[in-house]
Amino acid sequence: MEEDELEGARKRRQAERHKAAESKAAEEQLREALRGALDPAAYDRMTNVAMANKELYVMAAQQVLMACKRIGRPIREAELLTVLRALKARTEKETSITFHKK
């Protein structure tokens, strides 16, 4: 019984390691694609976005790669900022504070 549990735990750990390795490889591939699709200043900004907001980074990366294919040249920082602002406005939740007097 204990051997079965140990074997199951080993298989789960191995699957987790395999999944982590695949995830790391996919992220590296995305990073290399962005390096070619962005000018150096824009790439630096995207790395900052990746550290601050992973979800926004992934959405922006998809948009940038599609835009780069469409226009056929690297995206500049000003264009990247436009994309980031548009995505942030679309995904950001409106926050409001209301006070009720008694």
Give me some keywords for this one.
mainly alpha, 102 residues, 4 helices, flat, single chain, 80% helix
Describe this structure in words.
The chain is an all-alpha fold. About 80% of the residues lie in helices and about 0% in strands. It is built from four helices and no strands. It has helices at about 1-35, 40-50, 55-70, 75-90. Helix 1 packs across helix 3 (about 55-70). The chain is flat.
Beta-strand content bin: under 5%
For the sheet with most strands, the description reads: none
**Terminal residue distance:** 64 Å
Count of DSSP-assigned helices: 4
Total E-strand runs: 0
What is the chain-wise order of helices and strands? Answer: HHHH
Q: Which descriptor suits the 3D outline? A: flat
Helix content: over 70%
Q: From the alpha-carbon coordinates, what is the Rg to the nearest angstrom?
A: 21 Å
Q: Write down the overall mean pLDDT.
A: 88
Structural class: mainly alpha
Poorly predicted ranges: none
Short description:
The protein is mainly alpha-helical and 102 residues long.
